[in-house]
Design brief:
Elements (H helix, E strand, L loop, with lengths): L1 E3 L4 H12 L4 E5 L7 H12 L4 E5 L5 H11 L3 E4 L6 H6 L2 H20 L4 E7 L23 H20 L3 E6 L2 E2 L8 H11 L2 E5 L5 E2 L2 E2 H12 L9 E6 L5 E2 H12 L4 E5 L14 H7 L7 H16 L18
Parallel strand pairs: 1-2, 1-4, 2-3, 4-5, 5-6, 6-11, 7-10, 8-13
Antiparallel strand pairs: 9-12
Helix pairs in contact: 1-2, 1-8, 3-5, 5-6, 7-9, 7-11, 9-11
The structure holds nicotinamide-adenine-dinucleotide.
């Protein structure tokens, strides 16, 4: 089993669940692009201490390293989560997105063509849908009008995966994640930012009056989906599919702040700003296909997910809510 992006938020949780089930896991990460490099390194160090885990610090943009990795290990199943992830950052500085998201994925697909896995599950994103109006996105909807380079790379990944599946018969599943949050999450994302600001008594800036809606998806539900799909490779002449991974319950950003106030027991200081470019105003998953495949889908209510996040946040950052952790990494999230 190979997991790329293992030091990342989702990768870390996927690897831990796999190790918990007794799998031996090879993890790859270049340890780049993190808003909080210390948190990223803590995830990686935690995994590297696990007996069933073998970590490779390498860049997928390095073709030789990727080929050697796949050739030496020939993993039966691959979960590809490594990517440059910032939507607005991809507009400001697109080059690393070209290298990591496009060239990196190309190298992985080429290695898979030579040493085909039973199943390659890779991360796509709800951003491939672009502006949808205020309705649920379905996998059959058009996805040809991205509004950031990040979104364009994710859509390109889907098309590349389809081509390599068609050419070499590689079973591939692309998962369109909808705004994932939870313990060990990304500090630049809304849930983390809001809870941190409330805990520290700092101001929260809300764009577009806090009217943006996101289908916030709890990390444990995402791991369930990744591993559930991994066990069921697609079949057919071109064994390729894409699936939404989201609960279909969009929450206004302002409502999220209110829920974060409830979870922390503190009041937020809010400042309103006009909407920034490069991000969509509404995301909502139609998760019917995922539910049909797995018999279940993301279901954790945002209040419950936030409560778990706040418990982790306080434990990890200590009472002073500093970004440098003061306590040990012993306590972890999870169901
Ligand atoms: P993350 O930034 O925490 O993790 C991504 C990891 O990939 C990082 O540790 C980074 O070092 C690694 N990486 C980047 N470029 C690399 C390269 N060239 N070679 C090797 N490693 C590299 O992000 P995440 O939130 O865990 O996201 C995981 C995947 O899910 C990404 O592909 C992302 O685009 C996708 N996704 C995430 C969300 C979300 O809400 N978190 C939503 C939609 C899609």
């Amino acid at each position: 089993m190979l997991v790329t992006g293992a030091a990342g938020f989702i990768g870390f949780h996927v690897v831990r669940r796999l190790l918990g089930r007794g799998h031996a896991v090879h993890g790859v990460d270049a340890l780049v692009g993190a808003a909080d490099p210390a948190l990223q390194r803590h995830r990686w160090q935690q995994l590297c201490r696990e007996p069933g885990f073998r970590g490779y610090e390498l860049d997928l943009a390095d073709a030789d390293a990727v080929h050697k990795l796949i050739q030496d290990g020939t993993p039966a199943r691959i979960v590809h989560l490594a990517a440059r992830v910032g939507v607005r950052e991809s507009v400001r500085e697109p080059e690393p997105y070209l290298e990591g998201n496009l060239r990196g994925f190309l190298h992985l697909l080429e290695a898979c063509a030579k040493h085909p896995p039973e199943h390659l599950v890779y991360a796509s994103s709800s951003s491939v849908y672009g502006e949808t109006g205020r309705r649920a996105s379905h996998e059959g909807d058009r996805a040809d009008a991205p509004v950031s380079f990040y979104a364009a790379t994710k859509r390109a990944n889907e098309l590349m995966a389809h081509a390599w599946s068609s050419l070499y018969g590689i079973p591939v599943s692309g998962l369109r994640f909808f705004t994932v949050y939870g313990p060990w999450g990304r500090p630049e994302m809304a849930v983390y930012r809001f809870v941190r600001a409330i805990e520290r008594g700092e101001e929260i800036t809300l764009y577009d009056g806090g009217r943006m809606r996101r289908d916030f998806t709890y990390i444990d539900d995402v791991v369930d989906a990744v591993l559930g799909v991994l066990e069921q490779p697609p079949v057919g002449a071109t064994p390729a599919r894409v699936l939404n991974v989201g609960g279909g319950r969009p929450v206004q950003v302002l409502e999220l702040v209110r829920a974060a106030e409830a979870a922390t027991g503190k009041t937020a200081k809010i400042r309103l700003q006009p909407g920034p470019a490069g991000d969509v105003v509404h995301t909502e998953a139609d998760a019917g296909a995922l539910r049909a495949l797995l018999g279940r889908g993301p279901a954790t209510p945002v209040e419950e997910g936030l409560a778990r996040f706040v418990a982790w946040y306080r434990d990890y950052h200590g009472e002073a809510a500093e970004l440098t952790p003061r306590r040990s990494l012993r306590r972890q999230s999870g169901k």
